[in-house]
């Protein structure tokens, strides 16, 4: 399976003998897609692994924001959606597992171990916590096994990988979470907001926090889940949404946020919102 060309893949786990599984899926989007409508998974919890970019989930009135390397658990029978947000540009895996013990064993694990893992995951539901990029290798290997499922050995591998995935997820969920942004990130945020009106260069951001450009890009992505330029553009587009609700012309909004041309602004705006500035403004006025 070529993960470089597969935009979206979904497998029904019960087709592969996973009695307590519903589905596992993966997407890698280069631009935003329409948002998820309100839905629920009957009797199943869902674990979402945001690897790159950003994703939002809305449960009731509560909105949860996931960035790269974040994990979120949706409880069973819980209505959720992406709210007013689209399915975002980036990469995400998800897996749905039945919590009812009468449905059988999970990956041939003893009942006690199965119930322990699922109870631990349910305990962390409706919380965003940090993952590990090691999980991506487990998930990709699992998807490859499902794509090429052809023997008893494949079945053993699928069971083993799901068990490993759940165990690693539970371990990560119990690690202390860094809630407060670092001093350096706060400093960068202030700098970006102060300079949204112009082009912001990665090297000046790196200089601000005393890092080489190469190390800064690595450090920044590890902290925010996205490259510096994407982070800056997301903030610019959020400001553009506010500006488009005023009487400013679209060209004026574009130049006022440091975009060299209105076309580049429109392309960037659509990449992160799924719509053009003109369409966005029209929808706000309806």
Automatic annotation (TrEMBL):
<dbReference type="InterPro" id="IPR037923">
    <property type="entry name" value="HTH-like"/>
</dbReference>
<dbReference type="InterPro" id="IPR009057">
    <property type="entry name" value="Homeodomain-like_sf"/>
</dbReference>
<dbReference type="GO" id="GO:0003700">
    <property type="term" value="F:DNA-binding transcription factor activity"/>
</dbReference>
<dbReference type="InterPro" id="IPR020449">
    <property type="entry name" value="Tscrpt_reg_AraC-type_HTH"/>
</dbReference>
<dbReference type="Pfam" id="PF12833">
    <property type="entry name" value="HTH_18"/>
</dbReference>
<keyword id="KW-0238">DNA-binding</keyword>
<dbReference type="GO" id="GO:0043565">
    <property type="term" value="F:sequence-specific DNA binding"/>
</dbReference>
<dbReference type="InterPro" id="IPR003313">
    <property type="entry name" value="AraC-bd"/>
</dbReference>
<feature type="domain" description="HTH araC/xylS-type">
    <location>
        <begin position="186"/>
        <end position="283"/>
    </location>
</feature>
<protein>
    <submittedName>
        <fullName>AraC-type DNA-binding protein</fullName>
    </submittedName>
</protein>
<dbReference type="InterPro" id="IPR018062">
    <property type="entry name" value="HTH_AraC-typ_CS"/>
</dbReference>
<dbReference type="InterPro" id="IPR018060">
    <property type="entry name" value="HTH_AraC"/>
</dbReference>
<dbReference type="Pfam" id="PF02311">
    <property type="entry name" value="AraC_binding"/>
</dbReference>
<dbReference type="InterPro" id="IPR014710">
    <property type="entry name" value="RmlC-like_jellyroll"/>
</dbReference>
<keyword id="KW-0804">Transcription</keyword>
<keyword id="KW-0805">Transcription regulation</keyword>
């Amino acid at each position: 399976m070529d993960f470089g060309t597969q935009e979206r893949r979904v497998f029904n786990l019960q087709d592969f003998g996973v009695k307590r599984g519903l589905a596992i899926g993966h997407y890698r989007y280069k631009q935003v897609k329409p948002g998820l409508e309100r839905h629920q998974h009957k009797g199943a919890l869902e674990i979402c692994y945001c690897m790159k970019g950003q994703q939002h989930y809305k449960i009731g009135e509560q909105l949860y924001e996931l960035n790269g390397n974040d994990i979120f658990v949706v409880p069973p029978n819980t209505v959720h959606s992406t709210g007013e947000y689209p399915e975002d540009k980036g990469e995400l895996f998800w897996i749905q597992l039945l919590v009812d013990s009468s449905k059988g064993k999970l990956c041939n694990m003893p009942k006690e171990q199965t119930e322990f893992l699922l109870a631990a995951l349910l305990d962390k539901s409706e919380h965003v916590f940090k993952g590990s990029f090691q999980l991506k290798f487990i998930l990709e290997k699992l998807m490859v096994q499902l794509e090429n499922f052809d023997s008893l050995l494949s079945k053993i591998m699928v069971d083993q990988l799901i068990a490993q995935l759940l165990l690693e997820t539970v371990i990560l969920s119990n690690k202390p979470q860094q809630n407060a942004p670092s001093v350096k990130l706060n400093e960068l945020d202030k700098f970006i907001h102060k300079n949204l009106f112009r082009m912001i260069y990665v090297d000046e951001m790196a200089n601000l926090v005393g890092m080489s450009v190469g190390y800064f890009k690595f450090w920044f992505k590890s902290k925010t889940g996205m490259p510096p330029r994407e982070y800056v553009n997301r903030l610019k587009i959020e400001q553009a949404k506010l500006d488009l609700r005023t009487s400013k012309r679209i060209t004026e909004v574009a130049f006022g946020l440091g975009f060299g041309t209105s076309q580049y602004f429109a392309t960037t705006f659509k990449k992160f919102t799924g719509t053009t500035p003109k369409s966005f403004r029209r929808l706000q006025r309806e």
